[in-house]
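Notes, p. 3: input format for complexes.
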Amino acid sequence: MTDTDWHYSREKLAKEYMDEFIRYGCRALAIFSERQVGKTEFLTRDLAPEAIRRKHYPVYVDIWSARADPARAIANTLKGHALALQKSGRLGLRELSLTAGLFSMGAKLDDLDKDRDAHEPAETVDRLGYWASRLAKATRRRGVLLMLDEAQSLAASRNALNEISALRAAFQMNPGKFAPVFTGSSRVRLEQLFNDSNAPLFKYGDEVEFPSLDAGFVNYVLSLARKLSNLRLDPKGALAVFEALGHRPGEFIGLVRSMMRAGISNFAAGLAKKLLADQERARVAVQMYGLTELERLVLRRIAGWGDPFSAEALDWYGTQSGPGARTPTKSAVQWALRTLRNRLLIESDSQTGRFRVGDERLEHALSGPEPLKADG
Ligand SMILES: Nc1ncnc2c1ncn2[C@@H]1O[C@H](COP(=O)(O)OP(=O)(O)OP(=O)(O)O)[C@@H](O)[C@H]1O
Ligand SMILES: [Mg+2]
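Output follows (376 residues plus adenosine-5'-triphosphate):
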């Protein structure tokens, strides 16, 4: 346990988002941001408490970790909360949501569909609607803030269209009850959910940008650091460094901690040291995979959602492999894919057969504007 809470509260933003539902009648919010800028922490530490203050019951589902079967995870989470609410008698709302667990309840979730309730339907899509309505009843006059974190993974499931339709139907069956918040760190894929005219959620939600933390956060961290250490951190350049780190609060806090440990008070020096260490870590991580040049290139291609076998892809492998390198054959690419699959670096969608990188962090690192170079 620690007494130090680095969390910088974002109450004002949480109020604005709840106002969208409560005052302006928004049906759903789709919140996009880059990775690691604080979406999950905002949902659980700022938005959920604000929801409770505004008479809403908060429910959180991490769709990314449930990506094998997101609809089942949502149905089971709704069920867990509905049953917990039913059992809890006269507990206050705050205790209730903590009892049920804001986070999808881990292993317990698995048992929730084995242990079937008397009227519970068998099919996942039907269960989703059934438990949404049961939870709607159990919360009585409260609304339900339904937070679907990393929601873009919803679109990747085999039965995605039916599942997302069931979700939408559940909201519509209980008008004014659900305040759904979808977050995503892939703009393209989040937009597929809301902007694709064939998508069940077409034009259903309002897209909002997730604002980055600013000088207030930097000052908060500096003041906490001042309390914790004798070292006088020089605030000059702190904000610029936070910006250089892509407004990622965890990275900035990590940097401040490492500066305190190393006795470095100057931010430019602290950043330089951190970047060197990061570069080394990335190099080691990539080396660790022990991949050949072609395997690395195919991995990058898949991270960018490209067809690994197209003529253009084959040319690209050739040009990337350096001067004098030959264009690889399709069967060489096939072998590379097999290795990547065996190492669980990629997976294929069982219906479309399309490949994707298994780990979203890795995917992002490989496909970002400055992809992680795989040269060992
Ligand atoms: N308001 C905040 N105050 C202090 N630290 C924060 C804040 N928000 C986020 N962080 C820290 O920043 C890091 C990333 O936050 P978080 O996981 O919420 O980001 P994310 O946008 O959900 O990332 P991802 O896209 O990878 O899921 C974590 O270490 C978290 O503790
Ligand atoms: Mg997150």
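The chain is about 50% helix and 10% strand.
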